[in-house]
Specification:
By secondary structure, the protein is of the alpha/beta class. The chain has four domains: 188 residues, FAD/NAD(P)-binding domain; 158 residues, FAD/NAD(P)-binding domain, CATH 3.50.50.60; 146 residues, PurM-like, N-terminal domain (60s Ribosomal Protein L30, Chain: A), CATH 3.30.1330.10; 187 residues, Alpha-Beta Complex (Phosphoribosyl-aminoimidazole Synthetase, Chain A, domain 2), CATH 3.90.650.10. It is 32% helix and 25% strand. The chain has 22 helices and 39 strands. A hairpin with a 2-residue loop joins strand 25 and strand 26. Helix 1 packs parallel to helix 3, helix 1 packs across helix 9 and helix 13 packs parallel to helix 17. 47% of the residues are buried. The N terminus is likely disordered.
């Protein structure tokens, strides 16, 4: 018998904006039993608007001004789905996503920010860099800074369209950072020509005119060319492909054409104009204002659909219209959280009235700031920058150094409503749930050798094995490495199929075993559907079909597959077969174990896990075919026993040894940092005992990446040996699809009483 709280209600948040980040943290400390919290976001790291100008100016690093949503959601016990929402079905209460099945909700909140409205100006979309979405803008900015640093003597002309707070702070920050580069390179700062365009008569039109005048003086004093009362009506591009500078950002000269007839040439053009909302919000049927923003009442609830809430830039309060500014998004976090909790508990919602006058601190890019509130303004001054810096860092501190212990105590203190679940045969998922899911799972391919499978279900599946083939079988099953069941299905299928590919077999079929968390039948149905859909898609891509399986329910999500493959006996690849002189190739980077161990401790950054997931979703099928084509003599996949463990399996009872090149081993982003912190997988201590087979383990253990040799992998790469004469061609072919592929060692004749593994480049 098992005590548990079933999941009954789905609260889904779209977007990782300021309001949602605050709400997620508060849900972590004030969880509601039976509520499943899910965040859908297209990025792991959400930028904090208050510090972005400082980041552009070079005053902050990436992590200081970004909220890492991965540890935050894990801290809250929430599921994070990294995908782009593209629509809503408000009749079915479903969110349509770009690259995954729809997500069902009972209660929905939207905080996705805004996008520039004026990219409809002819040429702007093609030639201008919009500041939103910010993640894309920052990628461009990094490219620009790299380019300027590489060629500081090159003159640079930059245009900024938009004279509001965003455009003004961007102008200060851009100039400050590029001037720093010029000074460091001993180049004149007038190599930069900066233009700021504003259609109105003054800068900062939403603030008191005295602030705009002060900012105007500072910009002119810093030689920024101001174009007031100039409306940009067109942007033209002029091809500079014959220019000696080979960089893509320089390849087109931008000609900014104003309605007055003014034309200004620029190398780079930034667009910081009035914002608009994503078109799909209005198309979904939500009540919106003239610019497409969701209309909400004083409770931050949609005026047309009570099951939908909205906050931040994407929302317009019908009774209290305010500018689209980060200060309001931050202050909506607490009332949004309170009303979401009240809605979940069916309590009366509370009204929220935002303040009319608010403090604005405008950074001038040089560790000074201007303060303004209503008619009062003063600065710029360094003390004001310190004040702003203190406020911003204090805000960001609440999302750093999250402690799971405090949250666990809160959760345990609220576990009042328990339900008893049976084990044994009673642990199975209900038959109706299973039937409904299987009816919806599409099989993209059909195979004549599947006599009885999902299309004609029976007590067991029946498959035919051709007379000239042998069947290769493997099985794997593990707890949910990721919270997203669709993603888990894909990763698990890739992991399980790799055993077949490593032996040179072609995938034929798969049997699934799924453990679904306790929940209401409709919730279990949705989880099982996404899990099996992810697995089926990967199986079908490999030419295999899902032919059956078994389901059960328990506390945690878990999934596994028995995979069947067919191969010609004479073409089978084996672990043992390497020859002296062969070259050792690894097709994927290592580090899955340490990264996800860090993830469990809230120590992994979202971008690290993003890279790890991307690696795990890559199939080894084509890699195996290429290795066969280039005469591979031995092959295996690197999984739970780590690189050394699987290498020792290849060496067992062979008269050969291997010399590994430590510097050549590919490593996933973030691994060096997690290893330095001493974060290892729970299987690492067992794997580490295999170090007894390494000749120079004492010297090798000083290498910072030494622990990586024993790091367990999920859906890892293939480890294979190929003849030396074909190694270069094989590696070149592999790297077309598997960019992390590396030659990591060579095979030697084993000398008597010598341990089989030697580490090269250990110092």
């Amino acid at each position: 018998m098992k005590l548990s709280i079933p999941q009954e209600t789905d609260l889904v948040l779209i977007g990782g904006g300021h309001s949602h980040a605050i709400a997620i943290r508060k849900f972590a400390m004030n969880p509601i039993p039976g509520v499943r919290l899910t965040l859908i976001t297209d990025v792991y790291h959400t930028p904090y608007s208050g510090m972005l100008p400082g980041y552009v100016a070079g005053l902050y690093n990436f992590d200081q001004c970004h909220i890492d949503l991965l540890p935050l959601t894990k801290f809250a016990g929430a599921t994070i789905l990294v995908n782009c929402a593209i629509g809503l079905d408000l009749d079915k209460n479903q969110i349509l996503c770009a690259n995954r099945p729809p997500v069902t909700f009972d209660l929905l909140s939207i905080d996705i920010g805004s996008t520039p409205a004026s990219l409809t100006v002819p040429g702007a979309k093609e030639y201008a860099i919009a500041v939103k979405p910010i993640s894309k803008f920052l990628a461009y900015w990094h490219e620009i800074i790299t380019m300027v640093s590489a060629s500081p003597a090159q003159k640079m002309r930059i245009g900024i369209v938009g004279g509001g707070a965003g455009g003004v702070e961007l102008a200060f920050a851009v100039q400050s950072h590029i001037h720093q580069i010029y000074r460091h390179a001993k180049q004149p700062t007038d190599n930069l020509e900066l233009h700021l365009f504003q259609r109105g008569t003054r800068l900062l039109p939403n603030h008191h005119h005295s602030v705009g005048k002060e900012v105007e003086k500072i910009l002119k004093r810093r030689s920024v060319v101001l174009h007031l009362e100039e409306n940009v009506g067109e942007v033209r591009g002029y091809d500079l492909s014959t220019n000696k500078t080979p960089h893509s950002l320089y390849s087109t000269l931008k000609i900014i054409c104003c309605d007055s007839g003014l034309e200004v040439e620029c190398n780079i053009l930034f667009w910081v104009t009035q914002a608009s909302a994503a078109p799909w919000l209005q198309k979904a049927g939500l009540a919106t204002d003239g610019r497409g923003f969701i209309l909400v009442n004083d409770q931050l609830q949609s005026i047309s659909h009570p099951q939908v809430f909205a906050a931040g830039d994407v929302a317009t309060m019908v009774n209290h219209v305010r500018p689209k500014a980060g200060v309001f998004a931050v202050r909506q976090g607490q009332p949004l959280f309170e009303n979401l909790q009240r809605a979940l508990q069916r309590k009366v919602l509370k009204s929220f009235i935002p303040q009319k006058n608010f403090l604005i601190l405008i950074g001038t890019g040089d560790q000074q700031a201007i303060a303004s509130r209503g008619r009062i303004s003063f600065g710029p001054h360094r003390l004001l920058w310190r004040w702003k810096d203190h406020i911003d860092r204090k805000f960001m501190d609440q999302f750093s150094n999250l402690k799971m212990e405090g949250r666990r105590q809160k959760v345990e203190g609220r576990r009042k409503d328990f339900q008893i679940f049976c084990a044994g045969c009673g642990a199975k998922v209900g038959s109706r749930v299973l039937e409904n899911v299987l009816e919806k799972i599409p099989q993209e391919i059909k195979r004549d050798d599947i006599l009885i499978g999902m299309n004609t279900p029976d007590d067991a599946a029946v498959v035919r094995v051709p007379r000239d083939r042998v069947m290769v079988q493997t099985i794997d099953y593990f707890r949910g490495l990721v919270d997203d069941p669709y993603l888990l299905g894909k990763i698990t299928a890739n992991h399980c199929l790799s055993d077949l590919f490593a032996m040179g077999a072609m995938a034929q079929s798969g049997l699934a075993i799924a453990t679904i968390p306790y929940a209401a039948p409709t919730k279990q149905e949705d989880t099982l559907y996404q899990l099996l859909l992810g697995a089926t898609e990967v199986l079908n891509e490999a030419g295999a079909v899902l032919i059956g399986g078994h389901t059960t329910e328990a506390e945690e999500l878990a999934f596994g597959l028995t995979c069947n493959g067919l191969a010609s006996p004479e073409k089978l690849l084996h672990k043992r077969g390497m020859q002296p002189g062969d070259v050792l190739i690894l097709t994927k980077a290592l580090g899955i174990g340490t990264l996800f161990a860090a993830d469990m401790r809230l120590k992994a950054k979202g971008r690290w896990i993003e890279s790890a997931i991307k690696s795990m979703l890559v199939s080894n099928q084509n890699a195996a075919q290429l290795l066969l084509e280039y005469g591979a003599t031995a092959c295996t996949d690197v999984t739970g026993f780590g690189l050394v463990g699987h290498l020792l399996e290849m060496l067992k009872r062979q008269r050969v040894a291997v010399e590994l090149d430590m510097e050549a081993i590919p490593v996933l982003p973030g691994v060096a940092e997690t290893l330095e912190q001493g974060i290892f997988s729970s299987l690492y201590p067992e794997n580490l005992q295999l170090s007894a087979s390494i000749q120079n383990r004492e010297q090798g253990s000083w290498h910072p990446l030494y622990p990586l040799l024993f790091d367990p992998q999920t859906s890892g790469g293939l480890l294979a040996t190929v003849p030396a004469e074909s190694a270069s061609a094989c590696l070149n072919a592999l790297q077309q699809e598997y960019s992390e592929s590396r030659v990591i060692g060579r095979v030697l004749l084993l000398e008597t009483e010598i341990l089989p593994i030697n580490l090269n480049s250990v110092f």
